[in-house]
Description:
- This protein folds into three domains: 1-41; 52-273, Rossmann fold (3-Layer(aba) Sandwich); 301-475, Nucleotidyltransferase, domain 5 (2-Layer Sandwich).
- It is 40% helix and 19% strand.
- It is built from 17 helices and 15 strands.
Amino acid sequence: MSLLTRKEVDGYIQMVDRVPDAERKKIFALLEMDRVERCRESYLFFVQQMWPIFISGKHHQIMANAFERVVNGDLKRLIINMPPRHTKSEFASYLLPAWFLGKHPEKKIIQTAHTAELAVGFGRKVRNLVQSEDYRKIFNTQLSSDSKAAGRWNTDKGGDYFAIGVGGAVTGKGADILIIDDPHSEQEAKQGNPAVFDNVYEWYTSGPRQRLQPGGAIIIVMTRWSKRDLTGQILKNSEKDGVNEWEVIDFPAILPSGTPLWPAFWKKEELEALKAELPVSKWEAQYQQNPTSEEGAIIKRDMWRLWEKEDPPPCDYIIQSWDTAFETNNRADYSACTTWGIFDHSDGKGNLRPNIILLDAFKQRLEFPELKRKAYEMYQEWNPDTLIVEKRAAGAPLIYEMRRTGIPVSEYTPGKGNDKIARVNAIADLFASGMVWCPDHRWAEEVVEEMASFPNGDNDDLVDSSSQALMRFRQGGFISIESDEPDEPIYRRKAEYY
Length: 498
């Protein structure tokens, strides 16, 4: 039958109490037929009917649409990366297999998770749902009488459900749909050993991937941990082979607009509090689906020196550097400012050498009036000896406005061929020489992480701001050589962290 329109459904509901019993039964029967048909056609509607307390979000609609394309045969390879506690497993490993086997009771599913116990738990939930009265009102799929184990069972139409943990054997099993749910455990990921991720990829390629039936589909739903996790290795090798058939959907916990991915469940204040508690690398990987990697990094994390004292050293010279954005609605565009202090530090041989320390860092999407106001505030706060603004994007009008108020600005215009990577390469020796310091603060950690992910990270605004300041330090006569004439004494300035 064709589905009723929303207006027709509402009309029947409004008249049901005003008609005789015989007509009322017909209306209820018609509405039930419509509900059953909707459950069969719409995965999200099926979820809402089987799980009445479900709180729907926009990301669930996107996931449901993708799952429908897989089940209907229109999409063969799907990766969804999403944060913890956003209905990942319930959606992909519990309700999806039940819906798929309802529509295709003759087909086969292999369900995996990072442990066999968890995978079998999913199998038990799916089996119990398929046997439930609510499910049987929608689908005719039934379990075969001689196969009802939680992790291994069959339908009466020859379909098959097989649950397995990562590392388990799948010999003799086939899959029309392979579902991989969080293949990496937290305990393993915390080891920081790349072999942990390599082992999962090796298991995937030598086991489940080879069990796929002709025309079969793969769904991977997981939280990111590393550039070398299963998502990272699959995509890297697909691109290397020149055959990238994967559709990838990334769901960050906090969207580029600053709003939560699932505001009906996660309040922004709760996510911000969580962000403040977690190390930057964990937040970016697990909650923003943006893992950083030092593979190919020019400035690695351990090249920074950590200033462990509560207060920064007295600084002889302050440099403030701005990298400005084009538009606030561009996902990759932030305006970023870093403030640096130059101070003398012993080289371990009794000689004092100029070093530089990060004093403050700021990154945000700003319209030009807000940008101008913020730049003025930060200049007043730090009173830098040198203020550098890159003359591009909003930088050109910002330079004009700052100079108009009497603030001296050094404009930075990258020359032809002087690209971002060349600029960072030019300051790498400062880090290698142990001359660059940062305090133990979260805002400093964000700079360290962004530098460590460059040039492969999603954002490089703090990198650009930092490289401008460090180029000024490198080229501004602060690093003395033996032929330099002695300077007049410079009285040190007291600096405080932001």
